Amino acid sequence: MATLEEAQELQELITRCAGQNDARALQEFVRLFHPVIAATVIKTARRFGPAGSEIIDDLIQDTYLKIFSGRGRILNEVRVEDKSRLYGFFQAVAFSVVQDHFRQQYAQRRGGRAPLMSMDAVEGVGESGRGAKLCEQELLLDKIDRLVREVSPRETMKRDRLIFWLNHRTGLSAREIAELPSVGLSEKGVESVLYRLMSDVRAKILRMKEPSEKARSKKERA
Amino acid sequence: MNSDSANSEPLNELLSLLGETPERPKAEGAHVPGDADRDAETFGRKQRECLSSMEIGELAAGALDDTRGAALLEHVILCNTCSQRLREAKRDLGRELSSEEKSILDGLRSSQAEWQSALVARAKRPGSRRVWNWVGFAAAALVLLGVGGFWLLNRRGPERLLDEAYLEGRPFEYRLDLPGYSGVKQERGAGSSRAQESDTFADAEKTVGALRRKGATDASSLRFIGVMQLLDGHADDAIEPLTQATDRSPNDARLKTDLAVARAVQAQQEQQPSDYGAALNLLAEAIHSDPGNQAAIFDAALVCEQMKQYDEALRYWNQYLELDSKSRWSETARQHLSEIELKKNAGKMR
User: DSSP label at B109?
Assistant: First the structure.
């Protein structure tokens, strides 16, 4: 969290940059945010293979132009209440510029202007019976989802459910989940929720199995 | 399920346990999904479109407020694609730069003061409403009235609007003879306008309207009208003003390239292969009068591919790369070149 003075200074800088006529403010903005924007571009581009410094420079330039374009609309909407959120926002702009650039290239390589298709949409195509298996799995996931809702206290149900699936389906660690907005727990807190949910859901499933097992053994005895 | 999901084992255990379990009535006191849940997304039924790159980035970088973040995460947990994208984004944005990446960062031109000053000069607008006081405004108004020109009344001149609109993305694969790199922007629905989502296009739309009301007939105004129509996804409306502009200024290679792009885009949209021939003729004329016109050569290669003239396309791509081997346009050129060569080697084409 920025101190009040820092926040005010940053807000003033952003407001001056939004006017787009203050060269000194724009220069200061670039000096201040260049390390985070450049690092984000480099790290994001790396996922798509080695990229030359020319391309990296172009993408960094595109990021600044996106931030400054449209009469500073993006900058006018920025409110500096939290310094790390502000840096996160400019990281997000750089991330999206790089992702969109390489995704467009990828789409072009695979059929010109064909829109990118969601991977979910193509799942189940190909192997025979795979679609049915996926449907079956989706039903099971829905059942687990219902159980997660049932074992969670009503007041934290939404948050607990997010934590459960972000860990088990999205594959984020407890630390990564704790860093996300709306979670509002420490890493330890997330671990504790995960442990509790897992135990409660497992116990609930086992309790659900009991009557059917009893009935089966009764049938066998008979 | 994601194969590299960090915690798939415990979930698999639950899934296998659950797979053997019969349906059972809900226990008393358990949470009963209400009306709000009935419309909610489930694992087999997503209601919201996948997240944009910006939304994924904002989530991963912790830039969103709790309410908006939670709404987006509700979708992420149900969507394999967005789950994977968020996981990758978290890993990418959350890690430190490697020593190799640090040396790339240090060697970037954009890390140098000269580059940054040039960027600022480019980003800086020539005038700002905010800093004008009444005296300045009155003085400027006098100048405007004195000149009486339409262009000066507009905050950004047509040329600058055109450059900015182009940088916001092009709705086709072809390249226009305008500065900078323009990414391909996905097409929107028929009849829609980018003016709804972009200030630049909104300003350009007003300028096009003013020029039409004024009955502008000079080549540069006609070019502005035509290219803006083209960038807004209306190739059919672009052809007439661009044809008139070419008639007014028959030796201008830029205008021929613009018109060729309009014809090629229309050929694709209307499935009229004969338009490709017309486009290629215009491009050949443009290259003849300006042999270094990169846009014309780039487009000629693409049109040849559309016409299945692969040898010619190869020739144009090689010619292009001799002129430009470093820009982002050259990446596209290399991709096309290698794809054609691959196909040729595989014997799929003559």
Answer: G
A100–B53: do the CB atoms touch at under 8 Å? Answer: yes
Distance from CA of B251 to the nearest CA of A (A): 31
Q: In whole angstroms, what separates CA A31 from the centre of its chain?
A: 28
B184 forms beta bridges with B170
Q: How far apart are CA B253 and CA B259, in angstroms?
A: 10
Q: What is the pLDDT of residues B185-219, one digit of tens each?
A: 765 555 567 776 777 888 888 888 888 878 888 88
Cα B243 to Cα B228: distance, rounded to the nearest angstrom: 14
Q: Please compute the mean of the pLDDT values over residues B73-95 and round it to a whole number.
A: 90
CA–CA gap between residue A9 and residue A27 (Å, rounded): 15
Considering only CB atoms, which chain B residues are within 8 Å of A56?
104, 108, 110
Instruction: Choose among B159, B170, B277: nearest CA to B219.
Output: B159
Distance from the first to the final alpha carbon of chain B = 43
Q: Is the pTM of this model over 0.95?
A: no
The pLDDT of residue A166 is 92
pLDDT value, residue A193: 93
Q: How far is A61 from chain B (nearest CA, A)?
A: 7
**pLDDT, tens digit, for every residue of B27-74?**
434 444 444 444 455 665 555 578 889 999 999 998 888 888 888 998
- The answer to whether the CB atoms of B31 and A62 lie below 8 A apart is no
Helices (H), B307-349: 310-323, 328-345
Q: Which helix (H) or strand (E) holds A97?
A: helix A83-109
> Residue B44 has what pLDDT?
55
Smallest CA–CA separation between A174 and chain B, in Å? 10
Q: Which residues contact A110 (CB under 8 A, 6 or more apart)?
A: none
Q: What is the DSSP letter of B162?
A: H
Among candidates B102, B103, B42, B105, which has minimal Cα distance to B78? B42
Burial class (CB in 10 A: 0-12, 13-18, 19+), B157: middle
Query: What gap in Å lies between CA B275 and CA A166, rounded to an integer?
Result: 52
Determine if residue A70 is left, alpha or beta; phi over 0 gives left, psi from -120 to 50 gives alpha, anything else beta. left
Q: What is the pLDDT of residues A142-185, one digit of tens each?
A: 888 888 998 889 888 889 999 999 998 888 999 999 988 778 89
Q: Which residues contact B172 (CB under 8 A, 6 or more apart)?
A: A113, B184, B230, B235, B261, B264, B265, B268
Query: Could you tell me if B283 and B257 are in contact, meaning their C-beta atoms sit under 8 angstroms apart?
Result: yes
Q: What is the DSSP letter of B4?
A: T
CA distance B171 to B262: 11
Residue B45: beta bridge partners?
B42
Give contacts of B168 with chain A, Cβ < 8 Å. 69
Tens digits of residue pLDDT in B147-178: 444 444 444 577 778 888 888 888 899 999 88
Alpha carbon distance B73, A117 (integer Å): 20
